[in-house]
């Protein structure tokens, strides 16, 4: 018998206005759920009325932009994933008009074995201009990227995102299963640079875990947090938390907001990881240990005294980062990589 995941904690919004969250909540490092945060959205009200009403409401804002769609045969049971030998994927991608995708989804609503249809990570203001005028969350001064996700009964493998993430279920019902970052080793992650949507994913099928192939997944489940959200509910997923998302109804819409708690001039740490694979992982053990100490000293446990012996004008790359120094470091790296 598999371990039972604990529920994700539920909290009150903490904002003065509907659809607002306090600054402290938006800086949280643990996940939480806010029931009914977007209950006042017209899109949510339409979805609670009927699928057709939600579909019609979305179409009111559509002006013809194409979207990226992922399409899979009924045999994949909504799980967008690799093919059997991990040489490719079990679905195909296409650019299409959003209204055509909605029409395709409508044709499968009553089908017990539908094809999997998914429009993921599409900028709301690009494909549905005007939607956010009355369907939005107040994030204060944060310059968040608002994206929309539309599909039928789909399953998105556990993955992490660098930004903080506030996800709002606008139509349908979804199940979220979350894991803290330290469960990485127990999730059996696939290739870092070849994956379905740009993020490394867990290879475990959550619907049918293979205990023989993935025995440590049981330990991951001991640390998992899970919740089901209805239209109007929201979940906060902190940076780097692994999350598996299942859409449970024939028509599902999610709007999410991504933002980073760091300046825009900072590059993604994924670049550092890939460079470390290129430059460090294959070194002899004692050399790797030496580099581990360098990273500890300068990156993971920096202290003011580390550079105190250097006058400020002579610290160069060790000086506090700003936009100008970030640009200079990026140029230096690019020049060094031109071999």
TrEMBL record:
PROSITE patterns: JMJC. SUPFAM superfamilies: Clavaminate synthase-like. Residues 117-274 form the JmjC domain. This is Cupin-like domain-containing protein. It comes from Massilia aerilata.
